[in-house]
Design a protein that fits this description.
Strand content: 15-25%
Number of domains: 1
Radius of gyration: 11 Å
Strand order of the largest sheet: 1-4-2-3
Number of helices: 4
Largest sheet: 4 strands, mixed
Structural class: alpha+beta
CATH superfamily: Ribosomal protein L30/S12
Distance between the termini: 18 Å
CATH architecture: 2-Layer Sandwich
CATH class: Alpha Beta
Number of strands: 4
CATH topology: 60s Ribosomal Protein L30, Chain: A
Length: about 80
């Protein structure tokens, strides 16, 4: 959670499944955060590409609505990527 707060301050966060997966496939992320109610298919895709590129995946103890509020966004967020 602390790491997520720090990343938000440094503006190194990528929001959303599509952008996160794209950057993950291109080895541009150092870590991925997933909400606890993220869709199973999305979770599997993220974990698959994270494993290939040796990127750690952090499963947050927050729903996607709580992650959105934590990031001060007016929408739900299931997946966040931390840029290198």
């Amino acid at each position: 959670m602390n790491e997520l707060s720090e990343a938000l301050k440094n503006k190194k966060i990528v929001i959303g499944k599509e952008r996160t997966l794209k950057l993950l496939k291109n080895d541009k992320l150092s870590k991925v955060f997933i909400s606890n109610n993220c869709e199973e298919k999305t979770k599997e895709d993220i974990e698959y590409y994270a494993k290939i590129n040796k990127v750690s995946v952090v499963k947050l103890n927050m729903t996607n609505e709580e992650v959105g509020a934590f990031c001060k966004k007016p929408f739900s967020i299931s997946v966040l990527g931390l840029g290198k």
